[in-house]
Amino acid sequence: MKDFQTKDTEPAPAKESNSEKKYESFLSPSKTKAGWKKPVVALILVCGIGAAVWSGYVISQRVKKTNKTPLSENNPSEPQPVADTATIYKDTVATQIVPQADPDYKYVLEVAKSKRAFKRYNQLKELDWNVQLETTDSIQFKLFMKLPVSDTSKTLDSLMAMTGKKVYIEY
């Protein structure tokens, strides 16, 4: 009977030690190996940057060599052939082409009654705007600017932002 009781009360050390090892592996920091990876990565990185810089230098030198002209091509001692313009333009009449000025666009800034129109006209003139005033029936006045042809959408956006009102083009 004594042998039977001793076997039951005796703990199994192998099973407990295995479970303790599993928990310890999660909780305790792992042992680090030799730190040789960082210097190798840094060396590869430095070599890569050096190769890129060197290849850029080689390519730029090749481009410089191809852009240089040999001395034999630019030799000033060789006479250059001169075209005879009298034979080319013998029977032609010279016409002068005058480029026509682009028409100005009429940007209407505001349509208002007389009191508001004159007040706004004077405000804009004080700011050195090239604003003009126009009316057809002496009740409603148009405040407008004539500007040269350019990027009309950009000009419209700029004028709307500066005046705070909708601006449109009148042709």
Description:
With 171 residues, this protein is an alpha+beta fold. It has a domain at 105-170. 49% of the residues lie in helices and 15% in strands. A 4-stranded antiparallel sheet has the order 2-3-1-4, covered by helices on one side. The relative contact order is 0.08. The model has no long low-confidence stretch (mean pLDDT 77).
Strand content: 5-15%
- Helix/strand-derived class? alpha+beta
The pLDDT mean sits at: 77
Which stretches of 5+ consecutive residues score pLDDT under 50? none
Beta-strand segment tally: 4
Spatial strand order of the main sheet: 2-3-1-4
Alpha-carbon distance between the termini? 120 Å
What is the CA-atom radius of gyration, in angstroms? Answer: 45 Å
Percent of residues in helical segments? 40-55%
The coarse silhouette is flat
Query: What order do the helices and strands follow?
Result: HHHHEHEEHE
Number of H- or I-type helical stretches: 6
Largest sheet features: 4 strands, antiparallel
